[in-house]
């Protein structure tokens, strides 16, 4: 169980699978560790609502949640009852955006994804490998 003083960074990227657009949602902690990844077919409020509910079941509620200006994220947090926790700004979500770079490199190396199940598995493996080898500068003197 995580401490409640942490900040979550929620973000989504689109991934093409056989020409169809799918969305990979990710939650990153302020220290850079990827908490969760989730694949959906749409980017609406219903899809945005599933992800924070899944996060709240597994981890304690964060103090603040940084998102981009996607309206469905704000609507989802409002439905959960935490609209005051959302912070949206130009550079606030940079932590989550940087975590997509390693995923994109791996996706290019695989030369395309063909199934949604494979995308979820690939994202989970990328997250676990990155978190294992992640050595933030703040951890060392």
Describe, in plain words, how this protein is organized in 3D.
Keywords: Endonuclease, Hydrolase, Nuclease. The chain is an alpha/beta fold. It has one domain: Ribonuclease H-like superfamily/Ribonuclease H (Nucleotidyltransferase, domain 5), CATH 3.30.420. The protein is built from 4 helices and 5 strands. The chain has helices at 45-58, 71-80, 94-110, 116-133; strands at 7-17, 20-29, 34-40, 64-67, 86-88. It has a 5-stranded mixed sheet with strand order 3-2-1-4-5, sandwiched between helices. The model has no long low-confidence stretch (mean pLDDT 77).
Helix and strand arrangement:
Blueprint: E1 7-17, E2 20-29, E3 34-40, H1 45-58, E4 64-67, H2 71-80, E5 86-88, H3 94-110, H4 116-133
Parallel strand pairs: 1-4, 4-5
Antiparallel strand pairs: 1-2, 2-3
InterPro entries: DDE_dom, IS_Transposase
Keywords: Endonuclease, Hydrolase, Nuclease
GO molecular function: endonuclease activity
């Amino acid at each position: 169980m995580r401490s409640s003083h942490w900040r979550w960074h929620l973000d989504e990227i689109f991934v093409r699978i056989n020409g169809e657009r799918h969305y990979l949602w990710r939650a990153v902690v302020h220290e850079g560790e990827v908490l969760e990844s989730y694949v959906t077919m749409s980017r609406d409020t219903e899809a945005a609502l599933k992800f924070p509910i899944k996060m709240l079941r597994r981890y304690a509620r964060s103090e603040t949640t940084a998102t981009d200006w996607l309206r469905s994220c704000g609507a989802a947090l409002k439905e959960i009852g935490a609209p005051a926790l959302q912070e949206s700004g130009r550079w606030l979500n940079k932590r989550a955006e940087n975590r997509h770079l390693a995923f994109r490199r791996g996706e290019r190396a695989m030369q395309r994804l063909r199934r949604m199940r494979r995308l979820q598995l690939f994202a989970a493996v990328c997250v676990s490998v990155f978190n294992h080898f992640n050595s933030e500068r703040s951890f060392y003197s």
